[in-house]
Structure formats: C-alpha cells, structure tokens
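Checklist before submission:
- one chain only
- standard amino acids only
- sequence pasted in full

Submission:
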Amino acid sequence: MSNFKEIEAFVSVAARGSLSAAARADGVTPAMMGRRIDALEERLGVKLLVRTTRKLSLTFEGSAFLEDCQRILNDLANAEASVSLGGVKASGHIKVSAPAGFGRRHVAPLVRDFLAAHGDVSCSLDLSDRLVDLVNEGVDCAIRIGDLSDSSLVSVRLADNRRVVVASPAYLALHGVPATPEDLLSHDCLSLNPQRGWVFCDPDAPGTTRVVKVSGRFECNDGTVLHEWALAGIGLAWRSMWEVQRDLAQGALVSVLDAFAAPSTGIYAVFPQNRRLPLRVRLLIDHLRGSFGQPDYWRAG
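Returned file contents:
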C-alpha cells in the first residue's frame, strides 16, 4: 500500500466524516479504508482519528496533519495542471460565492476579466454574507475573509486582511484624535455589530489582543453604509484595508490607533476536498491570487 494512498484516504475520511462515505467515494470497502488509516497511524506513530460507533473526530495531531495534507494534494493537482496547460483548454461552468461588499468591489471585476480571457468558461457569482454550504449548494469555490473553522475545506490564501480605525479629517478636527483604544468610549463609533466590539493588540504584550465595546448614535448591518458615513464625517469606523486603502491614499480618510492594530487575518479561496479540482477553477483561483498580489492593486481598487 503506497504512502500516498494512505494520505488520500485520511483526507477523504476527515472531509466526509465517516469511513463508509469515504469508501463509497473511492470505490472501496469501509474495511479497506480503515486499513489504510491504521497503516498511516502506525507508520507515523500517532493517533489521527478517534473512531467510535457514533462519530469520527480528529485528534489534535490529526487536525494539524490534515491541513498539511490538503495543501500537498492541492499543490500536486496544480502541478499536474500546469504540465498539461499547453494541451488543455479551460471550459465549463464555475459557481463562485463571495461576501457581498468584497465581492462587488474585488471579485466581480476579476471574474469578468477571467471570463474575457477564457471564452469557453461561464460563471455564476453569488454575492452573499451568509456562510454557504459548498457541497450541498454545488459551489465550486468560495471567497472567505478571516479565520477559517471548517477543516473539511481546502484553502488557498489570496491576500492578507488588516483592519484599521478610520475617520474623516473633518471629524478628527472637530472631535480630536483618539490616542488609545479606551478613548473610543468618548467618540461616535459607527458599529456593524456593537456586541462583538473592535479588536486591538497590546503593544506591550505582543501576540495578545483585547476587545473594546464601542458605542455611538449610528449603527448599520451594512459595511458599505458605515464606510459612507465615515467619509461623511459622522464618526469613526473599523474597516478592512481592502475597503478603505484608496481613501487613505487620497486623504479622504485617516487611520488612527495604528500602533494598536490587531494582527492581519486572511482572504481565502476555499473549496471542497477534491483531488481533481477542474482546471477552470484552479485558473480562476490563480487569477485572483495573482491580481491581489500586485503591489498597486489595493490602492487602485
């Protein structure tokens, strides 16, 4: 039994949540799938999965190993595709999901450009802030921002995502510039979800974060509205750099409390575990990652 087969079996079982489901997908018996997992655990000398009659769960070591295995399988699929690019033409339909605000500004234009370059590919772009179920809703690829919690999905980091506190020069001239996160308590803060608060780091204790529960006269569940209110001088807002970087460069907004900014999270493309990810999806992900990676992209977006 090859080491590669064992790794494929482990990833398939972890993604599908059961030996029987993974066995059906691979066209083997559950017993065979179980023997592959046993052989892998014996070779590594660690327990990767906890199996009972009712459920299957990953151990701590299994969770860490799964992330590496998913990346390896994805890299292998990309390597195979790159070798055959000269003789294979991308075609077919892609269903993509993205957060509404980010999708309108940064995904839709790039999807348009991608389709212009690949005439045999079509795309359905679903812009929604809900967490879509990729498998049950037939989504090929989803764009997600922030921490990822679903270990059954493969992720490709497209860009960093940093959040900053911003305000218009007019607001700061009238109300003053906050020097510490605690100063926000005396300011009008434009809240998307005030119960969650705004996250800051502690410069004197690297790696630690704290949450400040802000308040103000204006609240809205739409980030675009908060952005517009900040530009209008109504208050301070905690926004992502992908949304406000151009305004900062033009002087329409000013960032404050930069010394307390929380660590960056990520912008990811995620997709169901599938070692045969279609070429059209891989090329779209590469197009997004390459565009976001250009130094001037975010200032122009």
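Reviewer check: The radius of gyration is 23 Å.
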